User: Fold this.
Amino acid sequence: MVIPKPNKPDYGVAKAYRVITLLNCLGKVVEKVAAHAIAEKCERRRLLHDGQFGCRKRRSALDAVGRLMKRVEEASGRGNTAAVLLMDVKGAFPHVAKGNLIKRMEDMGFEADLVRWVESFMEDRKVIMSMDRKVGDSMDVETGVPQGSPVSPVLFVIYLSGLFGQVETKEEECGSEGISFVDDVACVVEGEDLGECTQRLERCTAETTIWAKKNACQFDIEKTEAMLFTRRRKNNERKLNARVRVGNHEVSSNVETTRWLGVWLDDMHTLNDHTKRTLAKARMVQNRVRSLMTKKGLSSEGCKRIQVAAVQAVALYGSELWWHGQENRAQEVQRLLNEQGRRITRCFRTTPQGALMNDAGLQLARDLLNNRVGRYKLRQMMMPDAQRRGKMSDVRRNVLQRVEGIDELILEDKPFERSSYERTTLPTQKRSLKGKVIIQDEKQALKEAMLGREGLVLWTDGSRKEDAWVGCVVVWEEGGRWNKRRTHLGRQNEAFDAEMYAMSEAMKFADEMAERKEVTRVTVFTDSQATLK
Assistant:
């Protein structure tokens, strides 16, 4: 089905339309299962590039923008100039070459069954175009993945993952870095001046073009943009004349703000222009839904839902990147919230703010912004590399340190020093256990647990909640006081993984106690017989 894209100047060209594939519902269930298996394999083996954020769990467009901002700030801290080239893959999903994708999956080490499934998924496909209620003839399709299939996004991410390694390896001396969100690609370099940055960007572009030709991929030159980040005022005039050669075309650098993934970036990274634009857009949306807020319109609860979903979502997009307690921005957001409260409750403008927010069921601006950053922090802490202190950890710390007192929202005192949340619990090397493994039924085990025992006694348990959160705990008694060691394992593990991890933590703790207190006897209780077996 061909759908016109909104706000296009000319609908006489093909790129003003988007092709959506309507697929069989039962087939999409199978594709969803396959997509989950492929994505799980990519995350566990770390097969994808660290700068790829699209079509991956717990990664969003704001993470990609935060990574870009961090990279530019690091360059500024070293007194250098940063340059970014923004590119868009032309016709992303429909131009995925079957042979190249299969070869890429084989090189990445995917199992033969998954590779054969993908090969079967992409062959013998037929398509019937429908536009303006007119249906065309059936045609064979040999290239591309259907836009609308659950498995297409992860296959495209795999297809594109080879680009970043090639560019970064060739241009390693200039510290180039690739960042992407689905088909939006950014190449970041730094140098001592604008001329050096421009040359390095052109070399990265040349490597990108080589990769694109080998993989039957194209970048839309009309959507290609260049950004030069420098805080030296004398370079502003040089930015006007700076050009980056991309193939046979020259791309001029943007002097003012540049929009990438919905965020308007500026040289100083204050995001002032972004805030003004989002608030103005939110007020425009609010005016459009005003007719629904009359006495004969929606109920108060319905008004609140539409205000939160349609207005607040627009106004606060990207607030996790710019909010660090600025009073002026809190006031601007609060004025918008006051207007929302009056629309929901239909109160007078003279109604006190506290009563207005309470009756409307809305939060104050400062609390709302802090909560959004707090949720962002919790989500980032669930990422697999939260403990490894990789590049994503630097991005999170850079974003989160801007909010004073935000750590009070988290129960842990040291959120960045906790253990890794998602890891494979199976040991890499087998270790022998000098002791007995006793498996009993429930009654016998309960009797044994009630008996007093010498030495260190540990109790372990692991569970998975209904909302898919997984965790484990190790409990022991010391000096008449019960102590515990808890670990959160995220959402990508099962209850058995938690039980195994709890047993592993108990063994580690027993080793620690033996070294410090010369404990010679250790007893560990668990309710999982599968763990003992």
